[in-house]
Amino acid sequence: GGAAAAVASGMVPIAAASDGGGSIRIPASFNALIGLKPSRGRVPVGPSSYRGWQGASSNFALTRSIRDTKRLLFHLQTYQVDAPFPLAPLVKDSLFCPMTKPIKIAFSLQSPIGTLVSNDAKNAVIQLLPQLEALGYEVEELKTPILDGIEVMKAYYLMNSVETAQMFDDIEAFIGRPMTVEDMEPMTWAI
Questions:
Q1: Do residues 38 and 57 touch, judged by C-beta distance below 8 A?
Q2: Is the pLDDT assigned to residue 54 strictly greater than 70?
């Protein structure tokens, strides 16, 4: 959040960020920034750990423009054959070329977990649709969810809890004593 505020305020042009469950994307959305979570294997990782949060965590940045995000992604990308998720490098021509075919953008005015969506949020999406169409995108409302959002969150929280427990086991081994509630925030202790 602090990094996003620093970029949005103009204190810095770009800030490093990492994302396992939204830590790049959510602050970006609250600050009108670009918050890309790259695919696993797109940017360098390791050598001490190639799989933060079982591969769910990625490192990248918060920026103020798609131009900056594209340039950073192109220049930071790597091919690490020894990493568990190697990807072929992006080709400059394909990353920086103009859109040549219509791209369909699905949108939904419903929460994927059944919670209330404010009228302000719905109106913001609705107001954006004509602008997307004017840019050549095809927009289509997704009226039926394609995923069970609650089951997705349950699976994510299970994975996150196991990964967090393993992380603290490693910390305890390093410091030579058990962790206590005084060592962490209450939410982390609960997890």
A1: no
A2: no
